[in-house]
Every structure is written in C-alpha cells, then in structure tokens.
Amino acid sequence: QVQLVESGGGLVQAGGSLRLSCAASGRTFSIYHMAWFRQAPGKEREFVAAIQRNSGITTYADDVAGRFTISRDNAKNTVYLQMNSLKPEDTAVYYCAAGIRSRVYDSWGQGTQVTVSS
Q1: Which residues contact 117 (CB under 8 A, 6 or more apart)?
Q2: How do beta strands 112-117 and 92-99 pair?
Q3: Residues 6+ apart with CB under 8 A from 70
C-alpha cells in the first residue's frame, strides 16, 4: 500500500482560500486514483473530489464544484486540493485517499483540520 500524509490545513475566514497537499510514498504514485474526503463533527465522512490516474479526469461533490480544484503532480508524488471561497460549512477534517481501482480507496492519510470562521 501507499502511505499518505496530508498538510496545509488551518484556520481561515469565510471567503478565504487554502491549499491542501497529500504526499505519497511507498509505491508508484502514478498507478493510483486519488481523492479527497472530509468529515465534519457528528457527520459521516463524505466525498469531496477525485482525480483519475491516467486521464486526469476530475469529479467533485456538488457543494464544492466551482470552488475546489483537485490536481496531481506525479513527479512529486503529491495530490493537491485548492479550496477557494471557503464557507463555515466546509469546516471538517480532510482526508487524502488512494486506490488502484477506480472509486475504491483503500489507503488513507491521517487527516488535516480545516476550520472556516464566519
């Protein structure tokens, strides 16, 4: 399996931006489909965005589409989540995930906290 380490979380005011990073190690990064999920207090973990390994095709949850952008740099073994126009409801722990099969993620990072103040 691949090991994943997220970074870039923090406290930001509503309307602000953050960029999360997820560094991968252990296996060839380019073979993995990558995704971001999040979990708010008292809620289940939910899908945020994904990027396919070969085509680079991206998908987004409806409530982040147009505000968040997922990207990957295979040379740096890193996937990013650029988050703009942040809202208080975006507050959550954000997790990076990887999988060899599309939409099946079996490697997870430890999470990074994002807090958006109103």
Answers
A1: 11, 12, 13, 14, 88
A2: antiparallel
A3: 34, 35, 36, 49, 50, 51, 58, 60, 79, 80, 81, 82
CA dist list (Å): 11 to 3, 25, 43: 26, 27, 20
What single DSSP character describes residue 46? E
Read off the tokens for 80.
């990013």
> 3-class DSSP state for residue 88?
helix
Query: Within 13 A of 52's CA, how many CA atoms are on the CB side?
Result: 7
What are the strands of the beta sheet with 78-83, ordered from one edge?
3-7, 18-25, 78-83, 68-73
Question: Residue 112 carries which side chain, given as an amino acid letter?
Answer: T
* Per-residue pLDDT tens over the stretch 47-103: 999 999 988 999 999 999 999 999 999 999 999 999 999 999 999 999 999 999 988
